Amino acid sequence: MKTIPRIAVFASGSGSNAQRIAEYFAGKGLLKITAVYCNNSGAYVLERAKLLGIPSVVFNRNDFYNSSFVLDDLKSREIDWIVLAGFLWLIPDPILKAYPQKIINIHPALLPAYGGKGMFGMKVHESVIAAGEKQSGITIHHVNELYDEGDIIFQATCKVHTGDTPEMLAAKIHELEYEYFPVVIEKLVCEID
Ligand code: GAR
User: Ramachandran region of residue 11, left (φ > 0), alpha (ψ -120 to 50) or beta?
Assistant: First the structure.
């Protein structure tokens, strides 16, 4: 009998997307959010994981880049897919190689614009507003060895109005993320696995 796909969610901060994904799939039997991986021991996503009853794995830079700690842990939990939801570090080569086309990320802008190193969270929204853009949006993409440069899977847009603050834009972007990220994960994972 085929077992359901096992998903690892990587997050560095608040983890509202991680929570939304976990709640969306809870009880559906389509896939299992098996663990939350976090590079920041003070991140609120760890509280959320605890409340959701999802195991979490905390690691530091050395664990991630100079040891096989994270990859070994992914293997021991038989993880099939990796979802980056507000995770801010590049994925090291051994993990990329172990999960070809099975690592996806969400970015809070319309890539290829407003991506790259240092472009995350509010920094993105501040830049979009400073440039006078009339629209922004989300991009869900495959992950490769470069920041925000993997193949694009899905985009959705929202309007940027005159007078919008970065916080207002962040709220609109989060709404798009909550609406589409779980659905795109479902489509991808359930169609391919
Ligand atoms: C999300 O908006 C996500 O798109 C962004 O961080 C936020 C995390 O929010 N990711 C990046 O900027 C990656 N470059 P959350 O912790 O509440 O899910």
Answer: beta
pLDDT in tens, 43-76: 999 999 999 999 999 999 999 999 999 999 999 9
Q: How many other CB atoms are there within 10 angstroms of residue 27's CB atom?
A: 6
Q: Does the annotation count 107 as an active-site position?
A: yes
Q: How far apart are the first and last CA of the chain?
A: 13
Mean pLDDT of the chain: 96
Helical ranges in the chain per DSSP H:
16-25, 44-52, 61-66, 69-76, 93-98, 121-130, 166-192
Nearest-atom index, ligand 1, CA of 147: 14
Q: What pTM did the predictor assign? A: 0.97
Q: What is the pLDDT of residues 119-159, one digit of tens each?
A: 998 999 999 999 999 999 999 999 999 999 999 999 999 99
- Domains assigned to the chain: 6-191 (3.40.50.170)
Which residues are near ligand 1 (CB < 6 Å)? 11, 13-17, 85-86, 106-108, 120-121, 124, 173-174, 177
Which residue carries 């949006």 as its tokens? 137
CA pair distance 107, 115, nearest whole angstrom: 8
